[in-house]
Amino acid sequence: MLATTGTLLVPGALAARQEGSSQPDPKIIEVTARKFEFEPSRIEVEEGERVRLIVHSADSVHGIEIKKFRVSKLVPRGGKPVTIEFVASTAGTFPILCSEFCGDGHEDMKGALVVRAKSK
Q1: Structural domain contains residue 104
Q2: Degrees (nearest 5) of the Cα angle 81, 84, 89?
Q3: Could you tell me if residue 56 is inside a domain?
Q4: 27-34 and 50-57 strand pairing
Q5: Which of 2, 51, 67, 78 is found 20 to 30 A from 101 (Cα to Cα)?
Q6: Given the DSSP bridges, would you call strands 37-39 and 71-75 parallel, antiparallel or unpaired?
Q7: pTM here?
Q8: 20-71 per-position pLDDT tens digit
Q9: Rounded to whole angstroms, what are the CA distances from 97 to 10, 27, 56?
Q10: What is the CATH number of the domain that holds 104?
Q11: 78 pLDDT band (50/70/90 cuts)?
C-alpha cells in the first residue's frame, strides 16, 4: 500500500527522476512592480526555458500579465511575493503589462519579455 503525504504522483515522474532525466531548474527572476514601472523592465530568457517570476509590489496593488504565456496575476500591496511559473515556448518579444489599474500612469507601466530563439 502506498502512503500519501499530500503529494501528487504523476505516472512516470518517479522513473524519470531515478534515471536522472528530470527537468532543469527554472530561471528565477525577481520583479518589483511600482508606480509606474516593472523592475527589471526587460527580461531575457531562451526559448523552451522554464521561468519562475517572483513578483512583489513596492507600493500599491498591481497586476502582471504576459498574454502569450497566459500569465495573469494580482500582486498585492506590501504583501507576500507572487510566484508565477511558465515555459517560454515561443521566441519573440512579448509585452509585460500591469493588469490592475494603479493610477494616472497605469497605461505606461510596461515591460518586455524577450525570448531568444534556441541555439541549434
Answers
A1: yes
A2: 155
A3: yes
A4: parallel
A5: 51
A6: unpaired
A7: 0.78
A8: 446 789 999 999 999 999 999 999 999 999 999 999 999 999 999 999 999 9
A9: 34, 20, 14
A10: 2.60.40.420
A11: confident
* pLDDT score of 12 more than 60: no
Give the pLDDT score at 3.
41
Residue-level pLDDT at 113 = 98
Contact yes or no for 53/62 (Cβ under 8 A): no
- Domain total in the chain: 1
User: Sheet containing 50-57: which strands, arranged edge to edge?
Assistant: 37-39, 27-34, 50-57, 82-87
Q: Would you state the cell numbers that stand for residue 70, as one nine-digit string?
A: 497566459
Give domain status of residue 57, yes or no.
Answer: yes
Structural domain boundaries enclosing 111:
25-116
For residues 23 and 13, what is the distance between their CA atoms, to the nearest angstrom? 10
Distance CA 27, CA 48 (A): 11
DSSP 12: T
d(CA 94, CA 63): 16
